[in-house]
Design a protein that fits this description.
It is a single chain. The chain contains nine helices and ten strands. By secondary structure, it is α+β, with helices and mostly antiparallel strands. Strands 4, 5, 6, 7, 8 and 10 form a six-stranded mixed β-sheet that branches. Strand 7 and strand 8 form a beta hairpin. The N and C termini lie far apart (42 Å).
């Protein structure tokens, strides 16, 4: 309870400063959708500009649940999340900010040589450089460098040092570069068609597409524990779509690409996929 109170106190303070905040669960990930919102049944993402019909009071929908409203943060619907929370996160784009997430010492060295000085917050493995300005969020713009702004979240790690500078053109330019090329496995990846005559249970092709898109997002937005995240994501996709024969090389390739952009090797992707299939018996 003391820990939960501490996270909530931090969240209320950040909200007062104008940072939309949300709790993070074990693994430093947002809380999953509640039963009413699972599988996007509610219309999805209540706080987007093009909001769907969802009016869920719980901290669903990842970054889109971030809020500056104290009554929401202290509501009964959020109480369970704060009790289970392991960290506080914020939506940089919602506060008019961009976070350059430097994930290792080499990335930090690059930033110090390349980018203008701004507010710097130490992290477990590197630094967050925070600029004033909004842009699209892109992961893997260069080795160890992610850009977090719109439609993303960053873990709160303290006030840091320095003064926030305007977002430089050099950071914006990173988002326009082609992502690092990835090599997909030459082996056939498509799932075998069922032989027992069962019909595909998916309600529409959009159901599968939404599932793959959400899986890609889960991988690309993972703040850490990328190996575990990739395996668990593969496991979730196979659990939902691995027995009906709808998964194609294109779908699986998209998952591999998302993982490799985050730094996973092809071998690790193949191992995670094989282990997930073995675990589920598909």
């Amino acid at each position: 309870m003391i820990r939960a109170t501490g996270y909530l106190r931090t969240a209320l303070w950040l909200a007062e400063l104008g940072l939309p905040v949300l709790p993070l669960r074990e693994g430093k990930l947002p809380f999953g959708n509640c039963r009413a919102c699972t599988r996007s049944a509610c219309g999805d993402r209540p706080n987007m500009k093009a909001a769907g019909p969802c009016q869920c009071p719980a901290p669903c929908h990842g970054w889109a649940a971030a809020t500056t409203t104290p009554a929401v943060l202290t509501s009964p619907a959020w109480a369970m999340a704060w009790r289970q929370a392991r960290a506080v996160a914020y939506h940089p784009g919602g506060a008019g900010l961009t976070v350059v997430d430097l994930d290792n010492p080499d990335a930090v060295t690059w930033a110090r040589k390349t980018l203008p000085a701004t507010k710097v917050v130490p992290t477990t493995r590197g630094e967050h450089w925070i600029y004033r300005g909004v842009m699209q969020s892109v992961n893997g713009v260069r080795p160890g460098v992610d850009l977090k702004s719109t439609m993303s979240y960053a873990r709160w790690r303290g006030t840091g040092t320095g003064t926030i500078a305007p977002l430089p053109d050099g950071v914006r330019a990173l988002a326009t570069k082609e992502p690092t090329a990835v090599r997909l496995t030459p082996r056939v990846l498509a799932m075998p068609r069922p032989t027992d005559g069962r019909a595909c249970p998916h309600r529409s092709p959009a159901y599968l597409e939404r599932g793959i898109t959400m899986a890609e997002q889960r991988i690309t937005e993972a703040p850490d524990a990328i190996h575990k995240t990739v395996y668990r994501t593969f496991l979730a996709v196979l659990s939902a779509h691995g027995r009906c024969g709808c998964l194609t090389e294109t779908h699986i390739g998209r998952l591999f690409t998302a993982a490799q952009i985050r730094g996973e090797s092809l071998r690790h992707c193949e191992d995670a996929w094989t282990n997930a299939r073995t675990q589920l018996g598909v």
